[in-house]
Design a protein that fits this description.
By secondary structure, the protein is an alpha+beta fold. The chain is built from 9 helices and 20 strands. It starts with a strand and ends in an 8-residue tail after the last helix.
Length: 441
C-alpha cells in the first residue's frame, strides 16, 4: 500500500508558518476525499484543510498548537496506487484528475523513526525543534533549559536558533537560518532570525490585571516588530481640503444606498485616489527582496479593518485601479463584513501591494502607521473636520469654513526617498481635492 503525504499549505505571500488549531481526525481513522482533516491559523486568516484523497490516516506528525513551517509534512494517508505529495490548500481548490498536484513549497524532512531515549522529556517538543537540536548536538538538558516563547512556554524554532546564536557562536543552522529556504520560504529577506534584544521585564503590582495575548495579537506583535527592524520608517504628512468630496457625498449617499444597497463611505474614494496615484508612481507599488526592488504589476490595495476582538486584519481589494467607485464600495463593504465575523477566505487577504488605515474612524486627527511587509508604504487617513481657511478669490483673500483632513504616509526609506514619497502623497491629496461635485454615482 502506498502513501499520500499532506504538506502544510502556503496561505499567503509572506506567510512562512501556521499554527495547528484543531485536528478533525486521528491516526487510524478512515477519511473520504474532501473531508476536512485539520484547521490551521496564520496571522492572516484561519482555514480548514480537506483531504484530496480517500484512505486511512497512517501518521499525524504535528499536534494541536504546534507551529509548522510551510511545506512541512503534517500527515500521511495510506492509499492504493502510486504515492505522491500534496501541498494542501483551502477548501474548494480545483484538482485535475490523473495529474500530480503541484507543490511549490520546499518540504522539510521530518523523521518518522521511533523517538530515542535521549529525547524523552516531560516537555513537548515539535519534530522541527527536535530535528534542529539533533543536528546541533543540543542535549535534552540544554533543551529543557531554553525559555520558550510559544504558547504555554513551548520552545519554538526561533527559541532554539536564538539559543544557538547566543551560546554556541552562531554555528550550523543558527548561522544560516536567515538565508535558508527551509525556514524562510516565500520571503527570504523579510524575516531573519530575531536579534538578541530582550524587552525589560514588567513586574506586576497589587491590583494589576494580567491578560494573556491571544494567538492573533501575538502574531500581529511579531509582524509589527519585524517591520520596524526590516524597514527604516519615514512619515510625511499633508493637509487636504476635501470640501467638494464631503458635499458630493452628502448629496449622493441616500441615492447610492437606494440604488445599490450599500452605504457610501469615504473609503472607496480614498482607495480610488490611492490606486490612481500608485499607477502614477509605480515605485510605491513595490516590494524589496534583498538588493532587488520588485515593481508590482497589479495594484492591490489592502484596507485595515478593526475586529470586535480588538485585533486587526487587512483584506485586499484586487486590481483596485481597474474598478469604478461602485465596484470598490462593493468589495470594501463585503470584505469588512466578512472580516468582522471571521469569514474571510485566504484569497481575500493575500497579494496586497499597498495598505490604507483609517485613523479618522476613531475620531483621530493623524497617525504614523507601521508598514505592512512586504509592502513599502502605508497611508493613514485622519478625521475630516470643519476648519477656517484662507481662500483666494478674484477680489482678494477671504476666510471660509472648509472640510479638511490630514493624510500621512509611512514609507520604507531603503527604496523610497522623501521626493518620491512626498510627490506620491501630494498626488493623493490632489485627487481628493479635485473631486467634482458632478461626479455622479
Amino acid at each position: 500500500m502506498s502513501t499520500f503525504e499532506i504538506l502544510m499549505p502556503k496561505l499567503g505571500e509572506s506567510v512562512e508558518e501556521a499554527t495547528i488549531t484543531k485536528w478533525f481526525v486521528k491516526e487510524g481513522d478512515s477519511v473520504e476525499e474532501d473531508q476536512v482533516l485539520i484547521e490551521i491559523a496564520t496571522d492572516k486568516v484561519d482555514s480548514e484543510i480537506p483531504s484530496p484523497v480517500g484512505g486511512v490516516v497512517q501518521k499525524i506528525m504535528y499536534q494541536t498548537d504546534d507551529v509548522v513551517p510551510v511545506g512541512a509534512p503534517i500527515a500521511i494517508i495510506a492509499i492504493g496506487g502510486e504515492g505522491t505529495k500534496w501541498a494542501g490548500t483551502a477548501v474548494g481548490t480545483e484538482k485535475t484528475a490523473g495529474t500530480k498536484p503541484k507543490n511549490e513549497s520546499v518540504p522539510l524532512k521530518v523523521s518518522t523513526e521511533p523517538e530515542s531515549d535521549s529525547f524523552k522529556s516531560s516537555k513537548f517538543y515539535s519534530p522541527l525543534v527536535k530535528s534542529i537540536a539533533k543536528k546541533e548536538n543540543i542535549s535534552l538538558t540544554e533543551l529543557d533549559s531554553i525559555h520558550g516563547s510559544g504558547k504555554d512556554n513551548r520552545v519554538t524554532r526561533n527559541d532554539v536558533l536564538n539559543y544557538l546564536s547566543k551560546n554556541k557562536g552562531g554555528t550550523g543552522l543558527a548561522e544560516k537560518a536567515a538565508e535558508s529556504k527551509v525556514f524562510n520560504q516565500g520571503s527570504e529577506a523579510l524575516k531573519p532570525v530575531k536579534p538578541q534584544i530582550k524587552a525589560p521585564e514588567a513586574k506586576t503590582e497589587s491590583g494589576d490585571k494580567v491578560v494573556e495575548m491571544d494567538r492573533m495579537r501575538k502574531l500581529i506583535a511579531d509582524h509589527m516588530v519585524m517591520s520596524k527592524q526590516v524597514s527604516p520608517h519615514v512619515t510625511s504628512i499633508i493637509e487636504a481640503d476635501v470640501t467638494n468630496l464631503v458635499l458630493w457625498r452628502n448629496n449622493y449617499k441616500n441615492a447610492f444606498f437606494e440604488k445599490y444597497g450599500i452605504k457610501l463611505t469615504f473609503m472607496p474614494v480614498f482607495t480610488q485616489a490611492v490606486a490612481k496615484a500608485l499607477r502614477d508612481f509605480p515605485g510605491i507599488n513595490a516590494s524589496v527582496n534583498g538588493d532587488q526592488i520588485i515593481i508590482r504589476k497589479n495594484v492591490n490595495v489592502g484596507i485595515a479593518v478593526a475586529l470586535p476582538s480588538g485585533n486587526l486584519i487587512v483584506p485586499v481589494v484586487k486590481q483596485a485601479d481597474q474598478k469604478n467607485l461602485i465596484g470598490l464600495a462593493t468589495d470594501i463593504n463585503r470584505m469588512a463584513a466578512l472580516a468582522r465575523i471571521n469569514k474571510l477566505s485566504p484569497d481575500d487577504i493575500q497579494g496586497g501591494t499597498f495598505t490604507i488605515t483609517n485613523f479618522g474612524s476613531f475620531q483621530n486627527l493623524i497617525g504614523t502607521p507601521i508598514i505592512n511587509q512586504p509592502q513599502v508604504a502605508i497611508l493613514a487617513t485622519g478625521i475630516i473636520e470643519k476648519k477656517p481657511a484662507v481662500i483666494e478669490t478674484p477680489t482678494g483673500d477671504v476666510i471660509a469654513i472648509r472640510h479638511k483632513m490630514y493624510l500621512s504616509l509611512s514609507y520604507d526609506h531603503r527604496v523610497v526617498d522623501g521626493s518620491l514619497g512626498g510627490q506620491f502623497l501630494r498626488r493623493i491629496g490632489d485627487y481628493l481635492e479635485e473631486w467634482s461635485l458632478d461626479a455622479g454615482i
